[in-house]
Design goal:
Length: about 120
């Protein structure tokens, strides 16, 4: 399991933080939620709209673990410098703490710091 790491994205300049709290995007059936998130992340990548960080909490942590339909896109965004922060409490709640495949495991402290360091917060 990855260790908790305090993130400080203030040094990146103007930043946007994306918050993902669902297993996908929106409140439709699972297949559509996954498809929408995949399209969204693809548009970020293809248009160079790279946020400073993406935080995953509640069911959103399912997007950074084994079997996620968007792991490939998240890896590419991470390679471009996007900080991916998964909530440790949420991972433990869903029994997924040992299945994380991308990003870091962080606590609420990391999420709060990322929010306050960002100039814009987008919640999906």
């Amino acid at each position: 399991m990855l260790r908790v790491k305090i993130m400080d994205i203030k040094g990146k300049g103007p930043s946007t933080l994306v918050m993902i709290s669902r297993d996908g995007m929106g409140s439709a059936e699972l297949e559509l939620r996954h498809k929408l998130l995949r399209i969204y992340l693809t548009m970020l990548k293809e248009n160079g709209l790279v946020p400073g960080a993406i935080c995953f909490y509640a069911e959103g942590v399912k997007m950074v673990v084994q079997g996620s339909p968007v792991l490939d896109l998240l890896r590419e965004l991470e390679e471009r410098g996007v900080h991916l922060i998964a909530c440790t409490t949420c991972l433990q709640h869903y029994g997924l703490a040992d299945q994380i495949k991308v990003g870091i495991v962080g606590g609420m402290h990391d999420i709060v710091l990322a929010q306050w360091a960002a100039e814009k917060v987008i919640t999906l």
